[in-house]
Design goal:
Blueprint lengths: L1 E4 L14 H8 L5 E5 L10 H6 L3 E3 L1 H5 L3 E6 L3 H6 L5 E5 L5 H9 L3 E4 L14 H20 L7 E3 L2 E3 L3 E5 L3 H12 L3 E5 L6 H6 L3 E2 L7 H7 L11 H15 L4 E4 L14 H5 L6 E4 L16 E4 L2 E4 L9 H16 L17 H6 E4 L2 E2 L4
Parallel strand pairs: 1-2, 1-4, 2-3, 4-5, 5-6, 9-10, 9-12, 10-11, 12-13, 13-15
Antiparallel strand pairs: 6-16, 7-8, 14-15, 16-17
Helix pairs in contact: 1-12, 6-7, 6-12
The chain binds nicotinamide-adenine-dinucleotide.
Nicotinamide-adenine-dinucleotide binds next to helix 6 and helix 7.
Length: 374
């Protein structure tokens, strides 16, 4: 079998779906040929020669996209999609909630495995691309905020006087939010954090953050807040309003706000209203990590840093791609672990593990048809 690693073509996409480390393991049995498109790793600082040394052949885009199994970061589109062979399998972040995109993959006749759909079970943790990339996004969000902020993060006592520590609020304490708290803490900031799921309060406190409580006023609210399968659900409007007024009050005190709240398959919840931003201190920085899903912050713009009433709102997208080398290294290991469900790395035996619940959950199209999520 031919396994292809194309160069990603979307603007700003610096990651690559395999590294020399994973190529070596995929090629180890000697049964399969791995072809890497020339320059596929260059934006992640991986030279072609390293792939070659790991056992790959360096080829063209057509070679890599025309393989039997294609490992991608983002879903193939346009010319990329036209170059994928009918019947080939494609593994990547295929954007399963984009029905038109999945329909296009189905029409191209490929079997698509969308890693966003991995179930949140222990066995799938080593494959969990959303976690590995969200962790990086949470880290980079704080670094970007620190860069845009015109003051220090830590408290400093100098001969010229004392500098106060920055106050940081993190909204949404999943994987990205926890890493944002940990990173801001390492930089010396004072942290507050909030989430709809009450179970994360202990995690916030164990990282040295203060929990901002939004009380529940009914059993229904409490039950919805528990989420499902590790993910949040949309909260009732009454709770959202209570949250908005508590957060508006906290935001007035904050120097930096980082929002990471997502609900799978739906627009991101709006957590910070325009009048809340308007009432923040001049020089404050808001980073909206949910901007590509519609944004948690009113007024944030995808791909831009905008200034509203002296407050900077950072809406830069695809933050993992700004930490390309590590993002690729972790992503590629996730892909390898997923692939290992179907490919025996020692013997080279390959058969798509259709009975495995992990593989089943990720299948988004096959035989020309989109596969509905179970
Ligand atoms: P996510 O990216 O879907 O959402 C980010 C956070 O936003 C979540 O904590 C969510 O509760 C929060 N949120 C949603 N709506 C909100 C609102 N209105 N107000 C405030 N916050 C809101 O979530 P995630 O980071 O992918 O992870 C969610 C959980 O799943 C985490 O606790 C994580 O540890 C867990 N997880 C488990 C596994 C596993 O068991 N295999 C794997 C990965 C993650």
């Amino acid at each position: 079998m031919l396994i292809g690693i194309p160069r990603e073509t979307r603007p700003g996409e610096t990651r690559v779906a395999a590294t020399p480390e994973t190529v070596k393991k995929i090629a180890a049995s000697g049964k399969h040929e791995v072809v890497v498109e020339a320059g596929a790793g260059s934006a992640s600082s991986i030279p072609d020669a390293d792939y070659r040394a790991a056992g790959a052949r360096i080829g063209t885009a057509r070679d890599a996209l025309g393989a039997d199994l294609v490992l991608k970061v983002r879903a193939p589109i346009g010319d990329e999609l036209a170059a994928v062979k009918r019947g080939a399998a494609v593994i990547g972040l295929l954007d399963p909630y984009d029905a038109a995109g999945i329909e296009a993959l189905a029409r191209a006749g490929l079997s698509g495995f969308a890693l966003e759909r991995l179930p949140r079970i222990t066995r799938a943790q080593s494959m969990d691309v959303l976690s590995s990339q969200a962790n990086i996004a949470g880290y980079k969000a704080v670094i970007l905020a620190a860069n845009e902020y015109g003051r220090f993060m830590p408290m400093l006592m100098t001969a010229a006087g004392t500098v106060k520590a920055a106050r940081v609020l993190v909204m949404g304490v999943g994987v990205a939010g926890l890493q944002a708290i940990a990173t801001a803490k390492r930089l010396g900031a004072v942290i507050e954090a909030s989430d709809v799921r009450p179970s994360v309060k202990d995690q916030v406190e164990s990282l040295g953050g203060k929990w901002v409580d939004v009380p529940y006023e009914s059993d229904e609210e409490r039950q919805i807040a528990e989420g499902v399968g590790g993910y949040a659900r949309p909260m009732p409007p009454a709770w959202m309003q209570r949250q908005a007024s508590i957060i508006a009050e906290r935001c007035r005190q904050m120097d930096i706000v980082i929002t990471t709240a997502l609900i799978p398959g739906r627009p991101a919840p709006k957590l910070i209203k325009a009048d809340t931003v308007a009432a923040m201190k001049p020089g404050a920085v808001v980073v909206d990590l949910a901007v590509e899903q519609g944004g948690n912050v009113e007024g944030s713009e995808a791909g831009r840093i905008v200034v509203r009433n002296g407050v900077k709102i950072v809406g830069l997208t695809n933050l993992p791609a700004l930490v390309a080398t590590d993002a690729s290294a972790l992503y590629a290991r996730n892909v390898l672990n997923f692939l290992a469900l179907s490919l025996n790395l020692k013997t080279g035996d390959y058969a798509i593990a259709r009975d495995d619940e992990i593989v089943q959950a990720t299948l988004v199209c096959e035989n020309g048809q989109a596969v509905a999520q179970k």
